[in-house]
Amino acid sequence: MAVSALAGHAFALAQVSDDAVRLGMLMDLSGPYADITGRGSVMAAQMAIEDFGGEVLGKKIELLSVDHQNKADIAASKAREWFDKNRLDAIVDVTGSAPAIAVLEVARQKNRITLFSGPGTERLTNDLCASTLVHYVYDTYALANSTAQALTQRGGKKWYFLTADYTFGHSLETSASKVVRANGGEVLGAARHPISTSDFAAYLLQAKTSGADVVGLANAGADTVNAIKSAAEFGLTQDGRTTMAGLLLYINDVHALGLPAAQGLVLTEAFYWDMNEATRQWSRRYFARVKSMPNMSQAGVYSSVMHYLKAIKAAGTDDTEAVMRQMKATPIDDFFATGGHIREDGRMVHDMYLFEVKKPEESKEPWDYYKLLATIPGQQAFMPLAESQCPLVQK
User: Fold this and answer.
1) On the CB side of 250, how many CA atoms lie within 13 Å of its CA?
2) Which pTM does this prediction carry?
């Protein structure tokens, strides 16, 4: 029996290619999304590797990261270099939808795994789906389906959008518009702005003159923060008639805005650090290293890396097909998601949460920002497979 066990162990070791398991992260480390993913997401991945023990099947786990500067060509070039020269096994996170789509195409050609936590476009598991892709945290369909539906049903029938002029913004605007109209609302128009816009005055003037009840922010990161700050200075929301809807709003954004400016905002997230004891324990460990509480993408990075490494261990190899089979066959039950599972289109299905930002007097401590309004079951939050254009889905 001892000889057999040793032989099996040696066989398992031989199944790890290039004597290491290598993960790469293509991030915004210096631009408008650096605070919501960036170095915080890299630290989350590093924590997962450390908690796993630093190796799998007796081989070292290596982590690479680079700033893609929010440029799809840089992201694609680096992904190709990593796969060809560094023998990378998987790419994790990838801030931004346009870079993520570019990386997905390279990974598809190289038959390598992608674990997306930062990008939002629903196309990743819809028409662009791949058998080696996992979209882990959120997508534009889930955000719009939750936030836009809640606000429209509350009486916000007339919408105007401020939209980041690239793949993610367009996708979020389109998804939210469908939900608004399906709930009896009307879309009055949209103003599209480039990434890293500092002056929103002209866009907000268009929103104000439209007569909208709700101004939907189809953007993220520093753009969302600047838009909300500018709206307050512009007096857009002071009449009490117009509501700002952050369709992708992170807790980092609320922290940057401060509760006086952010109070009353309704948003959807996949994770909140103060949900229960498990989320609090992990988040406080993270805070000790990063000095800010984690958001859903950063928590999702940890969970996705841990799920991937467990799959390698269970499969006895880092072979792409074997690991993906194991990941899809294994439920996700951790501090990030309970009863989560990866569908055939690559969508990791889990509950989403509708929150309202607290008033300053309701907050008991720093980062105590959210009130839970509703839990949206994963089967309701994400696009039904019946609506999917993914060629992997059996109709």
Assistant:
1) 28
2) 0.90
